[in-house]
Design brief:
Elements: H1 10-21, H2 26-47, E1 49-52, E2 56-63, E3 66-71, E4 77-82, E5 85-92, H3 94-101, H4 107-115, H5 120-131, H6 140-161
Antiparallel strand pairs: 1-2, 2-5, 3-4
Helix pairs in contact: 1-2
Amino acid sequence: MSWGNITLTDKEFFTQMARYADVNDPRTCAKYWYAACEVIIRELFYNKSCRTPVLGTFTTRHVGESVQVQKGEDGKQVVYQVPPRDVPEFTPHDDMINDINMQGVTKQYRKRLKAGKLSKRDYERQVRAEILDINGKLSEDRLQASKEKFQKLLKEKKDRFKGKVTLEEDDS
């Protein structure tokens, strides 16, 4: 199933992080996310490589200096000097590939399965796949249970505050 060009904003990203980390303030997650990014940036600068847990490995590829020729607005050729630079590249880990597919698809997974030595991450993925269906939607049972729990919560709040809140009448 294709989701098109739907992407999260920074705020939505940190809100989801906070939800999964059971943190009240998304700014806390943002603080740690930016710290992790700083570690990756510095490792790439100094060591040209950074292995990130669960996600994968970032490396750098050097692109040499080049000359770019473009036609200017007046029709004359304009020559730009493009400086040499290092460009980050990402190689996902085995678990990341399996996780985004919601099932074991890699050669390493098949070896673990054959040997009967699935990892903790493999079992977590199976549980996640059971909670979510293949299309990434909540299963009907969980969705219904979630709706019922929400309705119960609303009823409890209504009962708790019943009679405590009085509306002031307008004198006009």
